[in-house]
Write a structure and sequence with these properties.
Blueprint lengths: L7 E8 L13 E2 L6 E8 L7 E8 L5 E7 L10 E8 L2 E9 L9
Amino acid sequence: SESPPVNSAMNSAVISSAPPSAPPSASLTKQASPSCYSVGIIITFDNSPFGTGYVLAKIDANSNESIVNLFFPNDDSLANQIHTQPLCLKEGRYKFTMYDSFGNGICCS
């Protein structure tokens, strides 16, 4: 079992039907089905995407995490490309973690 990369940035998000108290940082659109919200993860990779990836986990009432979606490129074939992952998330609390094992950030072409 491989340990996660050392450098990571973590953010948690709450998907809720209640109006936010501040402008949201991501746009959530409720689909026709009341059981989920349409959410998209969009990442523009730099010229070295290998070693960069993300994990989206749902957090339950006991603070346990279960992985909903993850993506880690196997090589640099996605260099300077856009990765788009549409998801349908149920109402709840989520944690989005972005990993950068090389520590060079996602900045440059």
